[in-house]
């Protein structure tokens, strides 16, 4: 979903609180505003940070909303099994890089554009491929079991031509379609029927009840170096607008983080 | 799925058998060929008919493959709850009429084009509506929870604009798209994401293990007259080609059955 640019997921320290669940000095993550000090009047989205042996910025990503997005969409919608073929589009972002790595840990074959950094099996850049269907057929000779969609539009349409029977598509985002007056047509939906394929849009909020289960899985993998988590950190609130614009042109590599202040 | 016109679901009496599960005189339903006497070499699709207090032709429909299709798609994919809004396209067929009636029995609000016959709440003919989105908004002021799709294409596209949050779409057929050189584009898939909607194509074979559970539900409803099941019966094998062609022009009203022979 589109994010209102005046709010976003951040990591903060409580400087004062009259709420019984939060006290001065607590570290929290959740929805905050783009400013140095914020008055939080509806703290429902805030969660206390319990593990501080990992970078705090991770709570804007792998240990926060994007991590839960990757986990919920992949585990709950797609139920990946060892040996299955997984395609992640826009794997350069916070969510995509995690989906691919989680799938690798589960023994899947994973393709996207970050082959070297994250140890995926194959890679291509969807913005540079004249024929997406041919590119997918090159990398998935036996077809795709799981597609984690962050792109939508023509990419989704080409993937539909390459899905295996009983395939699953988690629709996490459709960044190619945001803001278009005339969205791309998708012509291959009959493949849902031919291939008994499930396609499901989701919001991360559906899966927050699994947050502690997720931490139990992901924290050991982070500590043991089995998951590489890449951030693209810029300094200062004034860098925010350019950073958010870059998400739509593919400028970032890894989770885009704006560091407002550091202790 | 398209049906090979040389085979189809039929009801037959065994005239001879060397298979241990079938003996002379048994009534069976399953995939047979379009002829008066057939040699069945792979009887895996055949099931013995155990209840004969209902018309035998029902085993080509409500008590056979179409019944299981309606049941599997509605119950297993869509999990209807009392008070939910259900839209069934092409409700004039064998599957559609059952989906709508099952949903009514569960306390749902049901719209399609067979209002008077089957007791649905509202009705319209998708082939005569110049603006499908407006028609849906007229009948579903609060939106659609469940769409049982038999049509695909422009109908599906309009439905996407009217789905409620957490909606479910069972893709059972896309009859408007069969045989097209250039299928219709679907432009509103971003609604899957906005509305956390699940869309799933399925084959009836996925649900055959539930057949006895289904009979336990449907047989009492048939016997008590709580379900109306309409057949469009034509006589003689020679009527078959015209009958099958009529499915694509909307000529039939109710399940199209060809009576080859009667005892």
From TrEMBL, chains A, B:
Q: What domain of life does the native source organism fall in?
A: Eukaryota
- What range(s) does the Oxidoreductase N-terminal domain occupy? 5-46
Q: Which residues form the signal peptide?
A: none
Q: Which residues form the Alcohol dehydrogenase-like C-terminal domain?
A: 94-217
Q: Which keywords fit this entry according to its UniProt record?
A: Oxidoreductase
- Keyword Amino-acid biosynthesis present in the record's keywords: the answer is no
Q: Does the keyword Transferase apply?
A: no
InterPro entries, per this entry?
Answer: ADH-like_C, ADH_N_2, GroES-like_sf, MDR_fam, NAD(P)-bd_dom_sf
UniProt GO molecular function: 2-alkenal reductase [NAD(P)H] activity
Q: What is this protein called?
A: Uncharacterized protein
């Amino acid at each position: 979903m589109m994010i209102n640019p005046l709010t976003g997921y951040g990591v903060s320290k409580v400087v004062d609180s009259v709420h019984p669940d939060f006290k001065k000095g607590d570290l929290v993550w959740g929805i905050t505003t783009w400013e140095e000090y914020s008055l939080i009047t509806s703290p429902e989205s805030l969660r206390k940070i319990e593990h501080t042996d990992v970078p705090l910025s991770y709570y804007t990503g792998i240990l926060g909303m994007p991590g839960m997005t990757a986990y919920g969409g992949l585990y709950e919608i797609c139920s990946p099994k060892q040996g299955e073929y997984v395609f992640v589009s826009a794997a350069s972002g916070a969510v995509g890089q995690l989906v691919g790595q989680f799938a690798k840990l589960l023994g899947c074959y994973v393709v996207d554009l970050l082959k070297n950094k994250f140890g995926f099996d194959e890679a291509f850049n969807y913005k540079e491929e004249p024929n997406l269907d041919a590119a997918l057929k090159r990398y998935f000779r036996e077809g795709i079991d799981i597609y984690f969609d962050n792109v939508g539009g023509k990419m989704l349409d080409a993937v539909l031509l390459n899905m295996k029977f009983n395939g699953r598509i988690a629709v996490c985002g459709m960044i190619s379609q945001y803001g278009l007056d005339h969205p791309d047509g998708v012509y291959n939906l009959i493949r849902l029927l031919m291939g008994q394929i499930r396609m499901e849009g989701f919001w991360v909020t559906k899966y927050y009840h699994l947050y502690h289960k997720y931490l139990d899985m992901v924290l050991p993998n982070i500590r043991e170096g089995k998951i590489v988590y890449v951030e693209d950190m810029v300094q200062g609130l004034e860098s925010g607008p350019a950073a958010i614009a870059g998400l739509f042109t593919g400028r970032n590599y890894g989770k885009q983080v704006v560091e407002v202040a550091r202790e």
